[in-house]
Amino acid sequence: NDTYLLDAVGNRTEVQVGVDHGLTKPVAVDTTGAQVAGFEAIDGYTYLEGHVVWIKMTLDEVVTVMRGTDGPTLSLSNGGTATYMAGSGSKTLMFRYQVEADDAVTGDLDVTRLEMGSGSIRDLAGNVMAAEISSFASNLSDTQDVAIDTQAPLLMTVSVVEDADTANDVINDGYYKAGTTVAFDVAFDDAVMVDTTNGMPTL
């Protein structure tokens, strides 16, 4: 630079550093903020309305998180939002997403954006990550399948079942005498489980 050491009368000093007087430890120059390495869910299965999905975000260096009133958050591919919960002082940050009734159904949940809002994420050198990041080295669906299902099964068809030589075999379709057993096949658009704890479902 343009700063010199001068003696008392203004003469410029020629400084020479001896072999034993140089830097004793490596000096790292860091001018880049932390980079997102990828995402992972604590459990990969189908989540329903009211369930909580814990999403782990891994970075390439240790960071400090300053939490704001509206961030940091993760915007998700189904319209949901995951809120930062813990991890400051490490390379791994934890986000919490609670499935809401109006969140879209998906079989492959992904992260679309990391948004700081009024919060911030900075590395140990003080470099601050961008206010919004939408490009990641690896996404949630690259590591596991996280499905979100917020829709109840839809009734598709109800039809009469007539098995030959059984109690529900009738001679004339649509006409059933007293004592005839009539069986129905009920089809839904999704696999269902029947809970008979409080009684049997009826038509």
Can you walk me through this structure?
This protein has 203 residues and is an all-beta fold. It is built from no helices and 12 strands. The strands form 3 sheets. Strands 1, 3, 4, 5, 6, 7, 8 and 9 form an 8-stranded antiparallel sheet that branches. It has a two-stranded parallel ribbon with strand order 2-10. Strands 11-12 form a two-stranded antiparallel ribbon. It is rod-shaped and about 125 Å long. The model has no long low-confidence stretch (mean pLDDT 86).
Relative helix content = under 10%
Rg over CA atoms, rounded to whole Å, is: 32 Å
The helix/strand series, from N terminus to C terminus, equals: EEEEEEEEEEEE
Shape: rod-shaped
Count the DSSP helices. Answer: 0
Query: Largest beta sheet, briefly?
Result: 8 strands, antiparallel
Distance between the termini: 88 Å
- Strand portion, in percent? 25-35%
Given helix and strand content, the structural type is mainly beta
Flag low-confidence runs: none
- Overall strand count: 12
Mean pLDDT over all positions: 86
Descriptive tags:
203 residues; mainly beta; 8-stranded antiparallel β-sheet; two-stranded parallel sheet; 0% helix
Structure summary:
With 203 residues, the chain is mainly β. It is built from no helices and 12 strands. It has strands spanning 36-41, 46-48, 52-66, 73-76, 81-86, 90-98, 111-115, 120-123, 132-133, 147-149, 155-161, 183-188.
Q: What is the strand and helix layout of this fold?
A:
Elements lengths: L35 E6 L4 E3 L3 E15 L6 E4 L4 E6 L3 E9 L12 E5 L4 E4 L8 E2 L13 E3 L5 E7 L21 E6 L15
Parallel strand pairs: 2-10
Antiparallel strand pairs: 1-3, 3-6, 3-8, 4-5, 4-7, 5-6, 7-9, 11-12
